[in-house]
C-alpha cells in the first residue's frame, strides 16, 4: 500500500513519519508540502511533492495513487492571523481531501482537536469542527478523525505560554494520564494503528482516551 502525509514538518507529522518508517507498513510514502524537508538517512525511502497550497488544484497529480492519506496540516492564529488560520486548517485541508479522493485514496486520517465543534463561538474549535464535516462529506471509504487534547512534545519553534502549559500538564498526566494531554508520539502511533486495524463504519472519531488506548496497543 501507499500513503501520503500532509503537514510532515510539524510536531505530529514528524512523529508520524518516524512511526511509518519504523512500522514499514507502506511500500511508498509521499510527503506533500510547500517545501522539501531534509530527512537525512530516510531521504531515499520517502518521496516528496512540493505544492503551492494557494493553487492546490494545479497539483492533483501529487495526490494520485495513494491508498491512505494522513493529514497533520495546521497553523496557529498567532502565526498566520485569523484569516490565514482558517485558510490553512480548513480550506487547504478540505481541498486536499477532495483531491485525494479523486486520486483514489480510500482512507483519510485527520488530526483535529478535542472540543471541535462547527457551532462553537471559539474560532479554533469552530474551524476544526467545520473541517471535520467537510472531510467527512468527501465520501472516503473510511475516514478517521483524531481529537487529541494538549499535545506533549518538544517544539522546534518557541511558544512560551504553550511550554508552560505543557510543563504543568506533563505533571498532571502522572495522576490523570488520559484526560488533559497526550504525547505526540502516542498520536502518531494511533494514526498508523487506525489504518492497520480499521474499525467498522465509514467514519470513526477517536477522542483523547481512545487515542491513548490505540497508541499503546
UniProtKB/TrEMBL annotation:
GO biological process: import into nucleus
Pfam families with a match to the protein in the record: NAD_binding_10 (PF13460)
Annotated keywords: Acetylation, Disulfide bond, NADP
An annotated Gene Ontology molecular function: catalytic activity
Top-level taxon: Eukaryota
Gene3D superfamilies: NAD(P)-binding Rossmann-like Domain
UniProt signal peptide: none
NAD(P)-binding domain boundaries: 7-198
Record-linked SUPFAM superfamilies: NAD(P)-binding Rossmann-fold domains
GO annotation, cellular component aspect: cytoplasm
Subunit structure: Monomer. Forms homodimers during oxidative stress. Interacts (via N-terminus) with elongation factor EEF1A1 (via middle-region); the interaction is direct and competes with EEF1A1 binding to guanyl-nucleotide exchange factor EEF1B2, thereby inhibiting GDP for GTP exchange and reactivation of EEF1A1. Interacts with nuclear transport receptors XPO4, IPO5/RANBP5, IPO7, IPO9 and KPNB1 as well as GCN1L1/GCN1 and LRPPRC probably through their HEAT repeats. Binds NCOA5/CIA.
Name of this protein: Protein HTATIP2
Amino acid at each position: 500500500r501507499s500513503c501520503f502525509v500532509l503537514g510532515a514538518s510539524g510536531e505530529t507529522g514528524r512523529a508520524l513519519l518516524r512511526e511509518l518508517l519504523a512500522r514499514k507498513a507502506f511500500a511508498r510514502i509521499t510527503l506533500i508540502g510547500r517545501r522539501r524537508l531534509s530527512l537525512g538517512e530516510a531521504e531515499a525511502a520517502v518521496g516528496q511533492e512540493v505544492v503551492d497550497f494557494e493553487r492546490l488544484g494545479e497539483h492533483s497529480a501529487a495526490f494520485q495513487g495513494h491508498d491512505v492519506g494522513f493529514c497533520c496540516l495546521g497553523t496557529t492564529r498567532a502565526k498566520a492571523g485569523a484569516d490565514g488560520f482558517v485558510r490553512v486548517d480548513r480550506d487547504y485541508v478540505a481541498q486536499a481531501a477532495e483531491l485525494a479522493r479523486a486520486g483514489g485514496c480510500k482512507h483519510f486520517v485527520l488530526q483535529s482537536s478535542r472540543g471541535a465543534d462547527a457551532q462553537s463561538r471559539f474560532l479554533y474549535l469552530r474551524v476544526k469542527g467545520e473541517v471535520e464535516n467537510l472531510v467527512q462529506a468527501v465520501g472516503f471509504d473510511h475516514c478517521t478523525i483524531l481529537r487529541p487534547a494538549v499535545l506533549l512534545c518538544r517544539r522546534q519553534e518557541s511558544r512560551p505560554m504553550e511550554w508552560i502549559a505543557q510543563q504543568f500538564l506533563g505533571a498532571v498526566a502522572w495522576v490523570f494520564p488520559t484526560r488533559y494531554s497526550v504525547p505526540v508520539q502516542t498520536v502518531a502511533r494511533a494514526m498508523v494503528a487506525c489504518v492497520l486495524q480499521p474499525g467498522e463504519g465509514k467514519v470513526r472519531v477517536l477522542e483523547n482516551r481512545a487515542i491513548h488506548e490505540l497508541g499503546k496497543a
